[in-house]
Structure formats: structure tokens, C-alpha cells
Write a structure and sequence with these properties.
Elements: E1 2-3, E2 8-13, E3 16-21, H1 23-29, E4 32-36, E5 43-44, E6 49-55, E7 59-63, E8 68-73, H2 76-79, H3 83-86, E9 95-98, H4 111-118
Antiparallel strand pairs: 1-2, 2-3, 3-9, 4-6, 5-8, 6-7, 8-9
Length: 119
Amino acid sequence: MKYTKDHEWLRVEGDLVVVGITEHAATQLGDVVFVELPEVETMVAEGDEVCVIESVKAASDILAPIDGEIVAVNEALVDNPALVNEDPTGAAWFFKLRLDDMSVLDDFMDEDEYAELIG
């Protein structure tokens, strides 16, 4: 798994990259009560707002960590936003991206570097 400074995780599954938020981010948000997902087949560029998460504490955006095409979204989060708190690095993935160049993932933090970031 790779990590961003925005507390997102990226996991490679075949030729796709699965994106979610870290346990640290889920804890900081508090109880998630609403998730708005992007449309499948949307082309995104790094830094684009892709998802909206609302918790009892705040509303937050998930930004695209890399350029790509959204090929799947996790509809389970719409029906059960609490999944973000229950299993942030597993069942609560947000979307899957198809990339042109998987080598861009080399620029992200590994688990040890991320642990150092959140210290």
C-alpha cells in the first residue's frame, strides 16, 4: 500500500488503483454520516475533488491523488457511511482508478514513511 500526505491510501489491484482514506483520517473525521461518490468513467486529474465525506465534526473532500479514469465506486458507502469508521483500509474503499502509468505510484509514501508523518 502507498500513502498520500492527504491521508489517502492507494492499493494496486491488477491494472487498477483502489483509493480510500487511512485509519488516521477516519479517526480525525469522527463518525461519518454521508458519502458522495463520483461518477464511473469520470476522468480526474491529481488534486481534483472526487468525493465528499460528511461526519458529525466536519465535511471533507477526497482529492484525486493521481490522474486517471474512475472505473468503479463503492456503492456500499452510500448506504452505510459508517463503514469508513469501521474498516477504513478495507471494505471502505472509495473508488478505483485506471492509470496510464503505474510508475507514478513510486512517488508516494510507504507504510513506514506514513507512520512517521502522522507520528
